[in-house]
Amino acid sequence: MGSGIGESTLGGAVIEQISKEVFQSAVNTVFQLTDEPGAALTLVRVQEGRSTDRIEQFSLIFQAPSQPALTQGTRHVSHQSLGELDLFLVPIGISPEGAEYEAAFTRFLEKK
User: Fold this and answer.
1) Banded pLDDT at 15 (limits 50, 70, 90)
2) How sure is the predictor about 112, in pLDDT bands with cuts at 50, 70 and 90?
3) Residue 71 C-alpha from the chain's centroid
4) Of 85, 87, 41, which Cα lies nearest the Cα of 66?
5) Is 63 helix (H, G, I), strand (E, B) or coil?
6) Residue 2 has pLDDT above 60, yes or no
7) Helix or strand run (H / E) with residue 24
8) Residues 6+ apart with CB under 8 A from 72
9) Across the strands, what pairs with 2?
């Protein structure tokens, strides 16, 4: 199944090097849920968190149809350019466009 989190890669990049900028390039694109055939999420924005010079925090906000609703949990997703990865998705609300889900990231930055 190509590169994935189990191999510590995301589209060929080492997971420890993944940042909000990597996901910024995927805004308004589709992530397929590989464990639920036909189900997909659209990344609608990357939301800045409380980052410091040592820690980067950000969230990915996805939209999907309201039905079927996804429960909170880890989902295996596939993206055309980023590859495969596991995301812990939390339902955060309903908008006129559909259900919204969040995947939050906190990562330590290398000392420069």
Assistant:
1) low
2) low
3) 16
4) 41
5) strand
6) no
7) helix 20-24
8) 88, 89, 90, 91
9) none
Q: Which fold has domain 5-108?
A: Elongation Factor Tu (Ef-tu); domain 3 (2.40.30)
CB 41 within 8 A of CB 77: yes
Residue reference for tokens 């805004």:
27
Residue with tokens 């993944």: 18
Nearest-5° angle of CA 89, CA 19, CA 40? 35
Report pLDDT digits (tens) over 51-88. Answer: 778 888 899 999 999 888 889 999 999 999 888 888 99
Grade residue 43 by pLDDT with cuts at 50, 70 and 90: very high
Helix, strand, coil % (nearest 5) of the chain?
10, 50, 40
Mean pLDDT of the chain: 82
Domain ranges of the chain: 5-108
**Among candidate residues 69, 26, 62, the one with its CA nearest the CA of residue 44:** 62
pLDDT of residue 40: 93
